[in-house]
Amino acid sequence: MAYPGLGHLLLSKYLRGFFLFNWEVFLNYKAHINLGILYTFTGRFEMAKNALDITWVMLYAPTYLFAVWDSYRTTVDLNLQYILASREDAEVKTFNIDSVEINYLDKRTPWIALSWSALMPGLGQIYIHRIPSAFFSMGWFIVMAYLSKLLPALHYTLLGQFELAKSVVEAHWLLNIPCIYVWCMYEAYVNTVENNKLFDWEQSKFLKKNYQYKYFKMPFVR
């Protein structure tokens, strides 16, 4: 619900996620949704009404509602697929190598993934080998940080020049950053935890298949 498309990316539905996110960014920019939110939360209701572009704003609601509904529906379907795979004791692919990348299933530390994403969105995804999410997270964060003048505003804020910081910042793009920033940390942490669970599942399957049952009755040796 924070941002259309992010729920799909969390589920590794990349094409739908990229499309919905990019479409939301375009609609938000054309309709001035973020400015309307800013003026509303600061009590400037007339400015909020004047800022919104009615040509585009009516297209935003269907996109938002579809993104919420479809990500929920997809989550339910994937949970059912997991139940089936668990009951069938499905095989887990633990290693993949090709001309682009070497990827393997391994246990990693969730708080390390979260910490890298906190320092720079996308690094936590690189740490856990989620390259499409890393490319998306880092790319869009850099774009929005540049367009919002985030770093100059942060620089002036640290120097105590708050009025100068407010004058340089672009509010429309700045309001996009919290959603992406928090999502990157959450996505890196959650996927690290789930990958660790998958590793434990595969490891238990391997041990059951290759090691003797502990209650096996040894034949009597004379």
Short summary:
This protein is an all-alpha fold and 222 residues long. The protein contains twelve helices and two strands, in the order αααααββααααααα.
Descriptive overview:
There is one protein chain. The chain is mainly α. It has two domains: 1-90, no CATH class; 107-210, no CATH class. The protein is 72% helix and 3% strand. The chain is built from twelve helices and two strands, in the order αααααββααααααα. A two-stranded antiparallel ribbon has the order 1-2. The mean pLDDT is 89.
Q: Rough shape?
A: elongated
Order of helices and strands: HHHHHEEHHHHHHH
Tally the helices: what do you get?
12
Overall average pLDDT: 89
Q: What number of structural domains do the residues give?
A: 2
- Major sheet summary line: 2 strands, antiparallel
Distance between the termini: 71 Å
Structural class: mainly alpha
How many DSSP-defined strands?
2
**Rg calculated over all Cα atoms:** 23 Å
The helix fraction, in percent, is over 70%
Spans of 5+ residues with little confidence (pLDDT < 50)? Answer: none
Instruction: Tell me the quaternary state.
Output: single chain
